[in-house]
Design a protein that fits this description.
390 residues, alpha/beta, four-stranded parallel beta sheet, 50% helix
């Protein structure tokens, strides 16, 4: 269906680094033609593994500009899935079924990394890890503790990114604790799903092309959310836009319409702002609208939340998807760097912090800009703190 108009190219984070969506489609067409003709794939087949698959963020922003709605991210995931060997598939499936073990191992890896960087420095670790270790790398995260409190019940599922990757500065508040504090301040009684630290929405396997295994993870999470929400009686909040979007799509495709899942910033605008006393910050604060928010049209509410909290908001014009794309920022760090190459010109000298709605995006943004990016929940918590009275 691709007519090669090129409308997708300005939105693609890998355009002019490797391939654009249009060029990926043309390459796949040529590979299919050679295969049908019995011709060898040649150098195109070898090059496409990196240029076509490894450096595709899978963000789907191309589909928002495409006249016929082609999502090359979906194409990439299907092609990745076909190339997974039996051993790799078995390993990935095992990690999906034992996600709690993976989460603990990841936290341990972060702790060891910081111990080494404390002696040898971040630059050394970045070199030996091929760029996987970042400047201002987050410390190991902690899952929030279940608390009993009065108020209107609401289910909060801390996504794996916020549970594994903690703050950039040791001793700073954890994202899950901040969100629970804001919910309590607004008169809600947040409850956490049972065994939530062993659960994941399946996005990590979906991005690798393992759709069946990813759906199995989503199903386990769905069951836990149904139990915690008393069969959909109470709303569910998630704190990473990519994960929220995946679960919203998964639930919409199933026969279960009882669960109402909200991205944190959407719930904040609709249900928290009317209950909180906000003291606006002067700013400037940088705002990164990630690809999931752009695709779902939730950017209007995100800007509305920022406007309620900050007088001066800076939204870099030259950035679409940040290119971190879950694990891509660790595996092919050049994609993240290329995607953010224009952000520096749009950040004023007085911009001390930035916000977004995906923990991994914030890691890449922090590493590339030197400005601490964190969840918009931190900003809302700060602006809604009770003010001293005379």
């Amino acid at each position: 269906r691709c007519i090669e108009c090129g409308f997708c190219e300005p939105l693609c984070p890998s355009h002019r680094l490797t391939l654009s969506p249009r060029q990926r489609i043309v390459s796949v067409r040529e590979l299919a033609r050679r295969d049908a003709a019995g011709e060898p794939a040649g150098s195109i087949g070898d090059d496409y593994a990196y240029m076509g698959l490894d450096t595709c963020a899978g963000c789907g922003l191309c589909s928002t500009a495409c006249p016929v709605g082609i999502d090359v991210g979906d194409l990439t995931r299907r092609l990745r899935g076909r190339q997974i060997g039996n051993t790799a598939r078995a390993v990935n499936a095992w990690t999906g079924e034992h996600f709690g073990t993976l989460a603990n191992a990841s936290r341990l890896g972060l702790s060891i990394g910081h111990a080494v960087s404390g002696v040898l420095g971040d630059n050394f670790l970045a070199r030996v890890s091929g760029g996987a270790w970042k400047k201002n790398m987050p410390h190991a995260g902690k899952a929030p503790a279940q608390r009993t409190t009065a108020g209107d019940p609401v289910v909060y599922f801390p996504t794996c990114g916020s549970r594994i990757f903690g703050p950039a500065q040791a001793g700073s508040p954890q994202q899950g604790d901040v969100i629970i504090e804001v919910l309590k301040r607004a008169g809600y009684a947040p409850r956490l799903p049972q065994d939530f630290d062993a659960l994941c929405c399946g996005q990590m396997l979906s991005s690798k092309g393992m759709a069946v295994e990813a759906d199995a993870m989503s199903s386990r999470l769905e069951a836990a959310l149904l139990a915690a929400s008393e069969n959909g009686r109470y709303p569910v909040i998630m704190d990473a836009s990519a994960c929220t979007t995946r679960m919203q799509k998964f639930l919409a495709a199933s026969t279960n319409a009882r669960l109402k899942v909200y991205d944190f910033h959407e719930f904040a605008v609709d249900a928290l702002l009317p209950r909180l006393m906000i003291t606006r910050e002067p700013g400037p604060v940088a705002l990164h609208i990630n690809c999931s928010v752009r695709r779902t049209g939730a950017d209007t509410k995100l800007r509305q939340l920022l406007k309620a909290c900050v007088e001066q908001v800076v939204e870099p014009a030259g950035v679409t998807c940040c290119g971190f794309a879950g694990d891509r920022g660790f595996v092919v760090p050049e994609l993240n760097k290329h995607a953010l190459r224009k952000i520096h010109d749009d950040l004023p000298a007085g911009c001390a912090c930035g916000v977004s709605t995906n923990r991994t995006c914030e890691i890449g943004l922090t590493a590339e800009t030197g400005i601490n990016f964190e969840s918009v929940a931190f900003l809302l918590e700060k602006c809604s703190r009770p003010q001293p009275t005379c």
